[in-house]
Amino acid sequence: MRTVQSRASQTAVVMGSERLAYGELETRSNQLARLLQARGVQRGDRVCLLQAKTPAAIISMLATLKAGAIYVPIDIASPPARVNKILAAAAPKLLLAAAEATSLLAETRSGAAVVSVAGSLEGAQSRPENVEAYGDAPLPSVTGPADPAHILFTSGSTGTPKGVVITHEMVGAFLDWALPYFGHQAGDRISGHPPLHFDLSTFDIYGSLSAGAELHLVPQDVLLPHQIASFIRDSRLTQWFSVPSTFAYMMRADAIAEGDFPTLKRVIWCGEVLPGAVLAHWMRRVPHCTYTNLYGPTETTIASSYFRVPEIPEDPATAVPIGSPCAGEEIYVLDEALQAVPPGEIGELYIAGAGLSPGYWRDPEKTHAAFATDPTSGRRLYRTGDLGRRDENGLLHFVGRADSQIKSRGYRIELGEIETALTAVPGVAECAVVGVASESFEGTSICAAWASRAGTELDRVQLRASLAQTLPAYMLPTRWLQLAELPKNANGKIDRPALRGRFATNSPHD
Ligand code: AMP
Prior knowledge:
The chain is an alpha/beta fold. The chain has helices at 22-38, 55-66, 80-90, 102-106, 168-182, 200-211, 225-234, 244-252, 276-285, 364-370, 415-423, 460-467, 496-506, and strands at residues 11-15, 18-21, 46-50, 70-73, 94-98, 113-118, 148-154, 162-167, 189-192, 214-217, 239-242, 266-270, 290-295, 305-308, 324-325, 329-334, 347-353, 371-373, 380-390, 396-401, 405-408, 411-414, 428-437, 444-452, 479-482. Strand 1 (11-15) and strand 2 form a beta hairpin. Helix 5 (168-182) crosses helix 6 (200-211) and helix 7 (225-234) crosses helix 8 (244-252). The radius of gyration is 23 Å and the shape is globular. The structure holds adenosine monophosphate. Adenosine monophosphate (AMP) binds next to strand 13, strand 19 and strand 20.
């Protein structure tokens, strides 16, 4: 990973009143890397980060890489049962835990050693470490470009999160395209809005540090639209990058004034469709910025295509294209036989190129299912599950999903993971979970229908409480419907379109 070492006194990372200079980031990550090595961490070992999004977490990431190991950012807001699944899959050598993870840590079962990195871990399995006792000289690099740098766990349809392996060169290839394209400079002040277990945060962190810019981590309590707007203003940000739900949330609350955010130069989004009306609102209120749509799944590293919006969309119903492949990436629109479909026709989007992951961590079956080989070129391809088309100008358009993966509040969710958890609740005879487009902040509402076993009384409050034991809050259904029996199609399968229709018209709620 590339960081700038020649600007020791310049600010590298900011959060609230905490400010970390490049020199400090270098010194502290070197010390922590030496501690990791002293604790037996070697090239290829996993180090799980049980930390919130803080400057200390950035130090932990860099230290892990410098020690030659692979970091795994853990969502510490997830229930312990889910964190335990991730820990079991990652099989870490060590956990780097911060004070905010104390209660979670008490309920995790990993067997790995725990090192406290910031604050104190009351009652935890470890004593706070004296990191400063370790040398701060740079460490010789022990990894190559094809070595994994981090593993990002994402929702899995069978109920177990899957770990996407991201190598050093995959991130490097994206930055090689993105930094010159966006024109990152040392004077930039870049937002760090997504959580660290989202791959978008990789661009914030390494884009900013590679350019010698300032990374402004958005604190977790900056949640409301006006707070986010104040954050952009007060931090005098030059780049804002987030999922579209934040853009929509700010528009609905009328949090953006005419000509707002005078220092802002670039507005970038990724992860979901940004509705044309929301984009037009931002472009009118903040006309002095460039607006860029990035598209791509975690499996192909941050983004694989881009489209810079040339002017305010006249018709808000027109979708913004996902555009053209970033340098080093290839995107194909294919049919089921992996043959190219003609321009204008809808097919599935397949991605090849420099950002392609080697696969899911220790899961050859899921890797085999998601990655294919191009029959003509023999190249590896990632089967995105996205439907798309190429227009007459060669630009790509996102059309929807071919499966039951959704985005809700910017989170990638396999509805199958929720169904698996719901099926496991005693008393549930049958259930289905569907996504229904909503006007609210969620973007897509998670809707659950269930039938109870004869003689069992189950209400949505009980079901929700059961699911909260295994699923993070963002995966909990917000709308519920109890039925005597779920609707079936002619093949006897649950009729999901019919259920979506019921949720769309009936408006059951929690
Ligand atoms: P994630 O792995 O969380 O980045 O989610 C990847 C998925 O998000 C893609 O497969 C798409 O379904 C969706 N996605 C990503 N970027 C966009 C975009 N710009 N427009 C529409 N959908 C997107």
